[in-house]
Amino acid sequence: MAAHFKGRPILKKTSLHDEHVALGARMIEFHGWSMPLSYNSVIQEHHSTRNDCGIFDVSHMGQVFVRGKNAAAYLQYVTMNNIHKLTTGKAQYSALLYETGGFVDDIIVYMLEAEHYLVCINSANLDKDVTWLSRHNKNFQADIRNASNLWSQIAVQGPKTLEVLGRLDAKLSQKVRDLDFMAVTPYQWQGVECYVARTGYTGEFGVEIYLPNTIASSFWRASLEAGAKPIGLGARDTLRLEAGLLLYGNDMNETVNPIEAGISWALDLDTDDFIGRSALVDYKNHKSAPQRKLVCFKLNEKGIARPGMDVYANDKLVGKVTSASILPSLDCSGGFALVDAEASGMLQELEIDIRGKRKLAQIHKRPLYSSRTRLPS
Amino acid sequence: MKYPTDLKYSKDHEWIKKDGANFSVGVTQYAVEQLGDIVHLELPEVGASFNAGDPFGTIESTKTVSDLYLPVSGKVTETNLELAESPESLQNQETGEAWLVKIKASAPESSELMTAEQYEKFISED
Hints:
The complex is a heterodimer of chains A (377) and B (126).
Chain A: E1 4-5, E2 8-9, E3 12-13, H1 17-22, E4 26-30, E5 33-38, H2 42-51, E6 54-57, E7 62-67, H3 71-78, E8 91-97, E9 103-113, E10 116-121, H4 126-135, E11 143-146, E12 151-157, H5 161-168, H6 170-177, E13 184-189, E14 192-197, E15 206-212, H7 216-225, E16 229-230, H8 233-242, H9 277-286, E17 292-299, E18 310-313, E19 316-327, E20 332-340, H10 341-346, E21 349-354, E22 357-364
Parallel strand pairs in A: 3-5, 6-16
Antiparallel strand pairs in A: 1-2, 4-5, 6-12, 7-10, 7-11, 8-9, 9-10, 12-15, 13-14, 14-15, 17-20, 17-22, 18-19, 18-21, 19-20, 21-22
Helix pairs in contact in A: 2-8, 5-6
Chain B: E1 8-9, E2 14-19, E3 22-27, H1 29-35, E4 38-42, E5 49-50, E6 55-61, E7 65-69, E8 74-79, H2 81-85, E9 101-105, H3 116-124
């Protein structure tokens, strides 16, 4: 929980906080952090990322390093994906689950080298995740180090990413050109060891760079000088919604399981035991629990869907919007809704209750907007 | 930022412009700047009646939705459908340029409405 001073929370600051203030960003409180919502216009920042190159401070995300001879066995036990399919230099989308099958958090696991992993976790879940990870380490004795306070994270995303990186450091752009989607490689900025990963939260070609706090400002400034546009959390949200990427706390939480959330592709039940596995096997076989489905939708009419709005199908209340906004690249509103599986299976249309007026929405397969996430030709 | 002196202003950041017995109603540039990117406007039906202070529509930015409050009592005679089609154009207009609705007043305007000078002082303290 955030500390307080005279009744007001003391917000955590990333190592780039002063850079955002100097750029005139509108700062907001985000899960105990002071973060840039926007530098000028959310919509312009969205289009800058889709058409050019955006740079995002995502240092509020948590970084946990896991090492040791039992590191793989331990990660297999606490994550839902098959860790044995992960090879050195690759990344894997996964999740920490409760015994019930509900989410503790969704994560990315990077295999940096043999017996050495980096786990990227959500800022809102940092303390909870670190406690959870430690609690289940007793039988494995993996070396778990929460480095979140020491590491920064900068995302560089958009079709002009390689050009920007090329102006920054020709070696870096060559490295990224050779890097597959969902791959990671070590990199040195000013002689300091970092990691560059072909991952992101925008649906665009791009990288996420993990770097020690001491060199974050220098990399940030150099990226801006090389032509990257600073992008705030507002556009980060509209970009990830269009890309069909989930947000913990909105689209899933401890009451939602990965099958309902539509990320079964990152779930491997045919592997060694892991926390949550037996509950999910039951859910799949017996269909005991009420079946729900997280669906993507686009609003057919004018209006803006927002989280918490009621969703109807054939005049029956079937669920709620979990996250939604304007979608600038699609020129409409849309997002995710958690609805009865029957409604999502049988129907193509939903109605969203926007302050008493029902507006027609179309169920859409993910992503709502797709662009090249592979290497541009 | 300069606010036209022929308009009156409410604490909810709406402006009115008198035109005989009718009023044009809009939102101030200050409100637009606070909201950020304007993405949607919900305006009332022509013929609807409101009391001063009633919400008559909504204005939405990328992050929030805010109610629009009518500074005068009366009946809606016209709505700016062109503006509702492209609400983002509000960001490029001066205060007083883009009206949202026209109202046939049913009561005199409130003495609580501010002059341009008072409004500028009001927002500088906001």
